[in-house]
Amino acid sequence: MSYGFRGRALRSAAAMAIVSALSTPVLADELFYVSGAVGNAVENFAMLVKPWEEATGHKVTLVPMPASTTDQFGQYRLWLAAGATDIDLYQTDVIWAPQLADHFVDLTEAAKDLAPTHFPSIIQSQTVNGKLVALPLFTDAPALYYRKDLLEKYGVAVPKTWSELAAGAKVIQDGERAAGKGDFHGFVWQGNAYEGLTCDALEWVKSHGGGQIVEPDGTISINNPNAVAALEEAKSWVGTISPQGVLAYQEEEARGVWQTGNAAFMRNWPYAYTLGNGNDSAVKDLFGVTTLPVGKEGDTSAATLGGWNVAVSKYSAHQEAAVSLAMYLAGPEAQKARALAESNLPTIVALYDDAEIGAAQPIIPQWKDVFLNAVPRPSAPTLGKYNEVSSKFWSAVHQTLSGNGTAAENLEMLEADLTELKGDAW
Ligand code: GLC
């Protein structure tokens, strides 16, 4: 993968940095921060870093990456393996810490006062063999978004089980299509073959009592009847209540359909909350959020734990400034600004009692328990092999959803593949 714009931007910026270093005595650094972005994250970045730039005199340039966390990971791994010196900070997914730990600066000492203000489990997720490899920016746990107006219009209750969701989605979809909205869909989600599908499918499996792919003790659990039932149920949505094209959707495609008023239900992360209530949104003030459904009564709802962090590259020539920026972005001022602008869930405990955040983004206090109970992907037990585990899982799921083999066949093969990958130990 090559992003020509990036090379050019970095080269010319480097040239400018040399010119300014020669012509002025000011010791200002220019930092490069790479990050994928969904929603309005790119536009908001300048606003987020401005107070830090003003306070320090340094400058930060955002190098935007593709939205898919899978594509970002592939690119970052190449840059880091090559010891790329032109990138100072990486925005990192919660699942990457064990795999990329060696390339990042240990932030334990710098963050010794800041870290204890965050939820301990999140700090823990970014700690590898005692090294704090990244500082949390925000955490993530998805919601079921539903159209209040349409549920009321069709007498559909907020669904508790996946089958109630499918039945309600069908009633609303039939009604809206009959009324002339040919592009209307019952339920949109993330069905593309990438990390996002691992998140969605882990929720279906776990909420059917089918475990979490690989358990915290390292046991491969995915080949079981509840997981099979969960995937067969999801397959039944494709081409019925969900468009066939859902098999290529990531977060932003689902949000596009939803936000133009063309879906009754959507599974998505909290960032879609503030965007859905924006002035340009067809669903402004028309939707509610609830926890994801369960397989059957008695099962527990499952939300996959997501979230993003900032890491400082060991290969950066500006480590001191980069650490200072990471500390700022993981601190209370920037986390609050991000919560207000992007409805991202803070990781600093006290911000859940912040009245301004609660008033502007009610999903945030409402979602505290959801993320505290969220299901982690098996990145901790599978260590450096997580990416392969996940890609084998999302491939098996994508095959099933596409009608290439049954869930039972695909999960049996997945179990064999994972067993081989594991070998004697993860
Ligand atoms: C969200 C989550 C991240 C996850 C990704 C999958 O960005 O925060 O953890 O990997 O979605 O698409």
List the helices and strands and how they pair.
Elements lengths: L3 H20 L6 E7 L4 H16 L2 E7 L3 H13 L7 E5 L3 H4 L19 H6 L1 E2 L2 E2 L2 E6 L2 E5 H6 L8 H17 L6 E4 L6 H12 L18 H11 L15 H9 L3 E6 L2 H6 L10 E4 L15 E7 L6 H11 L2 H11 L12 H6 L2 H4 L1 H5 L6 H4 L3 H16 L5 H16 L4
Parallel strand pairs: 1-2, 1-3, 8-9
Antiparallel strand pairs: 3-11, 4-5, 6-11, 7-9, 7-10
Helix pairs in contact: 2-13, 8-9, 8-18, 18-19
Bound molecules: alpha-D-glucopyranose (GLC).
Description:
The protein has 426 residues and is of the alpha/beta class. It folds into two domains: 13-140 and 306-372, Periplasmic binding protein-like II (D-Maltodextrin-Binding Protein, domain 2), CATH 3.40.190.10; 142-304 and 378-426, D-Maltodextrin-Binding Protein, domain 2 (3-Layer(aba) Sandwich), CATH 3.40.190. The chain contains 19 helices and eleven strands. It has helices spanning 4-23, 41-56, 69-81, 97-100, 120-125, 148-153, 162-178, 195-206, 225-235, 251-259, 271-276, 319-329, 332-342, 355-360, 363-366, 368-372, 379-382, 386-401, 407-422, and strands at 30-36, 59-65, 89-93, 127-128, 131-132, 135-140, 143-147, 185-188, 263-268, 287-290, 306-312. The strands form three sheets. A five-stranded mixed beta sheet has the order 2-1-3-11-6, sandwiched between helices. The chain has a four-stranded mixed beta sheet with strand order 8-9-7-10, sandwiched between helices. Strand 4 (127-128) and strand 5 form a beta hairpin. It is globular, with a radius of gyration of 22 Å. 49% of the residues are buried. Bound molecules: alpha-D-glucopyranose. Alpha-D-glucopyranose is lined by residues 69, 93-94, 140, 195-196, 199, 251, 269, 306-308. The site of alpha-D-glucopyranose has 12 residues, from helix 8 and strand 11.
